[in-house]
Design a protein that fits this description.
Layout (H helix, E strand, L loop, with lengths): L14 H8 L1 H16 L6 H30 L5 H27 L2 H28 L6 H25 L4 H36 L5 H27 L2 H27 L9 H29 L16 H6 L1 H25 L3 H11 L3 H17 L3 H16 L1 H22 L17 H4 L1 H14 L12 H27 L5 H5 L14 E9 L2 E3 L2 E5 L3 E8 L9 E2 L13 E6 L6 E4 L11 E7 L9 H4 L36 E14 L2 E8 L8 E2 L4 E9 L8 E2 L6 H4 L8 E8 L3 E6 L5 H6 L3 E6 L9 E10 L10 H6 L4 E4 L5 H4 L2 E4 L3 E10 L4 E6 L5 E4 L2 E4 L12 E3 L4 E7 L4 E7 L2 H5 L3 E7 L1
Parallel strand pairs: 1-4, 3-8, 9-12, 11-16, 17-20, 19-27
Antiparallel strand pairs: 1-2, 4-6, 5-7, 7-8, 9-10, 12-14, 13-15, 15-16, 17-18, 20-25, 21-24, 21-26, 22-23, 22-25, 26-27
Helix pairs in contact: 2-3, 3-4, 3-5, 3-6, 3-7, 3-12, 4-5, 5-6, 6-7, 6-8, 7-8, 7-9, 7-12, 8-9, 9-10, 10-12, 10-14, 12-13, 12-16, 13-16, 14-15, 14-19, 15-19
Pfam families: Cu-oxidase_3
Organism: Brachybacterium huguangmaarense
Protein name: Multicopper oxidase domain-containing protein
Length: about 950
Amino acid sequence: MPPLSPAPSPDPLSRGAWHRRASRPVLAWMLALVVLALVHRWVPQARWLLVHMATLGLLTTSVMIWAQHFADALLRTRADEAARRRQVRRIRALTLSILVTCAGMLLAVPVVTTVGAAGVAGTMIWFAASLARQLRAALAARFSRVVTGYAVAASMLGIGAGFGAALAFSPPPRWQGRLLLAHQAANLLGFIGTTALLTLVTLGPTVMRVRMPPSLERSVRRTVVGAPCATAVTIAGALLGWPLLAAVGVAAYTALVVVVLVGLIRAARAARWGSLPLFPPLSMGAALMWLTGTLVVTVVLLVRARVGPWGPWGAVGVGGELGEADLQALTVPFIGGFGLQLLLGAMSFLMPTVMGGGPRAVRAGLAELSRGATGRVVLYNLALVVYLLADGSWTRVLASIAAAAVLVAFVPLMVRAVVMSLRVRRDEETRGDAPRREVTPTDTVAPTRAATGDAARGGEARTARRDAPADREGAGGVGRRSVGAGAALGLAGALGVLAGGQALDHRGTGGGRAAATGTPGTDAAAPSGRTVRASLSAHDMRFTPDRVTARRGDRVVLTVTNDDPTMPHDLLLATGETTGRIAPGASADLVVEVADGSVDGWCTIVGHRGMGMVFSLDVQGAEAGSGSSEAGRGGATETGSTVVSVDLAQPPSASFVTRDPVVPREPTGEITFTVREAVQEVAPGHSIRAMTYNGRVMGPVLRGELGRGLTVHLENAGTMGHSLDLHAGTVSPDAVMRTIAPGESLDYAITTDHAGMWLYHCSTMPMSVHLASGMFGAVIVPPAGRAPVDHEWVLVQSEGYLGTDGEEVDADKIAAERPDVILWNGHANQYVHDPLRARRGERARIWVMSAGPSRSMSFHVVGGVFDTVFAEGAYLLRAEDATGGGSQALHLGPAQGGFVELTFSASGTYTAVSHAVVDMERGARALIVVEE
């Protein structure tokens, strides 16, 4: 008897297996979004990341997966294993490209961002080509036009990615706004919107278990042709700087959306809502309403931009009335109201269907994902409305928490759906029941009466009555009481958010928006209907003009242009409105919706406010005493008189690495300095957001030799302009000491012709802030003929002006010369807990410098006498001098340096200090342990 052949193994990438593998990035993006939402305050570019992780990461990946699913279903094709594997590789390539794009934005490296954007574009064009090949190979199908639309929409995202890459390079201000609108139109309308509309046409009737109305089927052809054309018109209007043309494109797109919406409403009239799981149709319907409303608002803004005061389109907006604030205001309704709701609604229906297991298992999964459907949908949508309309920050925070909670609830419900589906399957296997009919991919599109009519519905109703009470919402039979109760709970939750937020916003302010803007005791101003526009230039530590006048109730739009070639700036008003960081050459809009009282503003870059970079919005007809002082200072970077308590008896943290005090033995020759901002510990239990050369407070100690060259290659990887001043060389300051912008570099070459200990530091204004933030170091050029020693150490003194732990230094303390701690080699008392070491009879040379920015030092070693002193290029004392003199202290002013020599004649613990005793008590102290 011939041996039995092994049973064929199941296809490792069957439809279900493919969905599980392809959906892993979607789950990862969901988790990443939740994490980022919790920690966004401490993440740079957090808003950009939230938007693009939601659109590129979550929505785009999901669209690619489900568009492929619908293409297979509509064309009635079944991909082989090789095709499935290519599809998974394509999704992974998309994920990697998105990660590279995000990394480029976080690192502020436009080339990396462009590489990621090119990867996204290439992946989507690959996807479009794959759909086109699948379409050509398939037999004629009723809804093949939908797949054509998917391919065209995927190509639009490739175009939009190109616009995004161009924005990463900070194009001229005239083009930034045009590219931004074109980028949004291609991605949001051309790709996400078109794919969503085509899917809703086919999926909507299936969700509601009704036949597709003929009018809805006719809208497929209109959408396939009209949506890309309308998007192209919008992009053309954006690039040409013609808001009316862009408005025509958006209006045409809106008309297509309305046609689809009306067709779905007609289909909904025929649905038997008592037998439906409610969450999918409610969520998708709400999403379509948000899309319609957002598009209408966009048309109004574009038209208003044309009829308002006209000029070149702004740097980050469209110009006229439409600026960055307007465009950003559309983000929440489009992504939160439309995109995320549509995605969760569709997934709530499709996931149980794809899991399969028979009609009962599918219904069980649908029931779990529709738990509390009306309450969730009502609460989420009202929370978005509250967020968009609220004036107070606490109200917006609570509204965003409520909306986020509804979104996060999808995850445990999804887990429950899987568990319940598997449980139903096991129960049927135990009873020996066979599923009446396995759900297939074609059940999710273009339903027929056989699949969705009375017969099928009757079986479902019988199962629903057996499995759960008919009045439980989401269980397949929905009672009016449960729907009403869910809606009431959602409404109550939204009202609770509104009441709680208003109470917190009004607490201690005297109530009303007037208090928030600093006009206590007055009623909120009524809108006047007027708009005041002003253009401000940020340059040379000034806003020009630094004062703008409006009348109470006016809407004020400030367009701030950063005309500094190397330094970022921003404008923060005491009432909380801010432009955010503005890169050199870029612009941003700051909008005060209703001017209620005069208010001060300033640049929050550390030190800039102290140098006079302030602004005033003067409002006529309002009481004096605006939110210009204490209420507003909390939003500023500078903390004024921040009270800091540092326990210098404690050791540095376990993660702190003691700075090596040994002078380099070999000449430096050439070295690269990379400027970075980094949180660095400067005292036990306290850190600052430092500006550094090569990552540490106090840059590397360099060693030169008389008459030899020294070259520093300076690279600015920070977020603002920086520079370098090497005191050891004679050069033209214009060439090598200039401030360079982020991403730029220069070579700084000198010849060390003179002996001494020379300071180097950043000379970008405010210089005191940059130096106090860690941008300093020493160049040691030993004199000829020096005597040999056993040890050669370096101690550089600087001052620490501490703000909030982990934040910038306190610029007000710097101006007042009130240091909290004194640092040696970048940390207070580090050598008390990790002493210098020598042996009895050994001789040491200690190089010392006062780096400042402002205080002198008087260097002394307790128990020792200096027999050699060298300061500022000359010996003040030599051991061989016939006078037999000695020195107890070396006094050095800011930027001065030298060395002392002494011999440790006895063992014990010596203490090196600054004999400005208060500075010693602030951390200017080191121990020298001398052993036998």
